[in-house]
Amino acid sequence: MDAIKAITSDRVTFRKDAVSYEPLNYYGKNIISTEMSEWKRHRAIAAPAFSEANNALVWTETLRIITDWFNQLDATQRTEKSASNNAFSDLAIEVVSPMATLLITSAAGFGRRVSWEDDSAAPASGYTLTLRSAVITAVENFFFRMLTPDWFPAISSIVKVPFLSARVHATQQAFEELGRYMLELVSSARASVVEGRSSASSAALLHNLVEANTSPEGGSKCLSDGELLSNIFSFLLAGHETSAHSLGFAISLLALHPEAQSKMYAEVRKVWPEGSGTVGSSSVSFD
Ligand code: HEM
User: How far apart (Å, rounded) are the C-alpha atoms in residues 54 and 51?
Assistant: First the structure.
């Protein structure tokens, strides 16, 4: 325990592997890719958003999103009786966990409250990719994007090279659409910052980041335009992929260990004998 404490709290001796995070600096530097005084500045801006009020918001948003998903699943199963349990668990691990965690991160951190249905089927109007596809494609092609000069996409759309042109196009599209999704988030938050509304709103993280972007340059709580976009991108990514993988493993392990599953279920029933009852007026049943 003492060793864990020392490693996680002594940031001078145990530094993070900042070099391996360099690809995250595409838009600018961010809380993940920086160290020492630069990191402290990013941290001081973002940290206050992770409060008890925000934890409560994460919980209500999780209930809303999972209830949305269950409702959609119920409707589908009424028409597709053949859906097997295996298909359900594969779906839960590969699709649902990352979808759910991205929707929760973007709602609780950035005030983007969309329904399950809105984001699972089709991209938003004016886009060819959903937010999740744009985030994932951009991440998967980060190195590729960094290694290709800016004039390359224009050339490759004229001179078609098998596989390469398609990848160049997909990468360019993902970065362009992700940039637009992020700017939409920024412009919705800028109004509340300009009007002087408090950060105790639903999008405390975004509010704090945008507020720092409007602070005088060089200040201890200031973010440049590039750092603003870079932090939004990093939180979207860090907040959803990690939680999705943890959930994926948790679901698989619970399926492999029914005794642990029963224990967990009993504890859930003890805390909420009547279901959670906190999504709008309808209760979430655990039966
Ligand atoms: C089960 C879920 C999660 C796991 C396993 C996880 C894991 C980690 C690990 C291992 C680090 C340290 C990386 C390093 O120092 O090299 C880290 C840092 C970080 N994580 Fe997570 N994380 C999770 C959830 C989240 C969520 C939900 C968010 C945001 C909403 C988030 C945002 C961050 C940020 C911003 C950092 C950098 C912090 C700093 O350097 O000050 N993570 N995470």
Answer: 5
